[in-house]
Amino acid sequence: MTTLHTLYLVSVWLHILAAMTWIGGMLFLVLVVVPWLRRGDRATAAAFLRDTGTRFRDVGWTCFGVILATGTFNLWVRGVRIADLARPSWRASPFGKAVLWKLAVFALVLVVSAYHDFVIGPRATAALRDAPGSVAAERLRRRASWLGRLDAVLALILVALAVILVRGWPW
Ligand code: HEM
Predict the structure, then answer these.
(1) Protein residues with CB under 6 Å of any ligand 1 atom
(2) Separation of CA 52 and ligand 1 centre (Å)
(3) Tens of pLDDT along 39-66?
(4) Biggest alpha carbon distance in the chain?
(5) Which of 115, 144, 147, 166 has its CA 20 to 30 A from that of 108?
(6) Does the pLDDT value for residue 156 go beyond 90?
C-alpha cells in the first residue's frame, strides 16, 4: 500500500464525511426543525433559527472547504489535470461530463448557499425578531425556506452525480 493510496483513501473518506455532515444537517433542518418551529411562536422560532442557523452556516462552509480540497485531490489522483478541461474529447467523455456537471451543480450550491446564509437568512431572522408576523418578515422567511429547499434538492443531485462519476452513467 503506497502513501499516495493511503492519502487517497483518507481523502475519499473525508470527502464523503463532509458531504454527509452538510446534507444530513440540511435535511434535518428542512424536514424536522423548520416544520416543528412553525407550530410554535414566531419569536422563539426566530431566535432558534438565528442561533442554530449561524452555527450550521459555519459548519456548512467548513464542509464546502473540505469537499473542494478533497474533491480536487480525488480528481488529481484519478489523473485529471487542468489541461483536460480544455480538451473537447475529455469534456465529451462520460467521466468528463460527470465531473463538469458535478462542478457546475457545486458552483450553483455555493451561490445559493451564499445568498441564503449571508443575505436572505440574516435579513429574515432580523425581520422575524423585530417585526414578527409582518408581511416583510413573512416574505423573507418564505424566501429563506425556498432557498434552503433548493439547496437540499441540489445536494441530492450532487450525490447522484458523485455515484455516476465513480460508477458510470445509467444509460
Ligand atoms: C457538496 C458537494 C459534493 C458532494 C455532496 C459530493 C459527494 C460525493 C460522494 C458521496 C462521493 C462518493 C461517490 C461514490 O463512491 O459512489 C464523491 C466522490 C467524488 N467526488 Fe464529490 N461531492 C461533492 C463535491 C465535489 C467536488 C467539488 C469535487 C471536485 C472538485 C468532487 C470530486 C469527487 C471525486 C473525484 C470523487 C470520486 C472519489 C473516488 O475516487 O472514489 N466532489 N463525492
Answers:
(1) 12, 15-16, 19, 67-68, 71-72, 74-75, 78, 102-103, 106, 109, 155, 158-159, 162-163, 165-166
(2) 27
(3) 877 777 778 888 888 899 999 999 999 9
(4) 62
(5) 166
(6) yes
In the reported structure, the alpha carbon of residue 32 is separated from the centroid of ligand 1 by a whole-number distance in angstroms of: 26
Residue 10 belongs to domain spanning:
3-167
For residues 166 and 143, give the distance between their C-alpha atoms in angstroms, rounded to a whole number.
35
List the one residue out of 11, 26, 14 whose CA is nearest residue 154.
Answer: 26
Cell numbers standing for residue 9: 483513501
Which has the closest alpha carbon to 134: 124, 120, 148, 144?
A: 124
Cell of residue 84, nine digits: 483536460
pLDDT at 23 over 80: yes
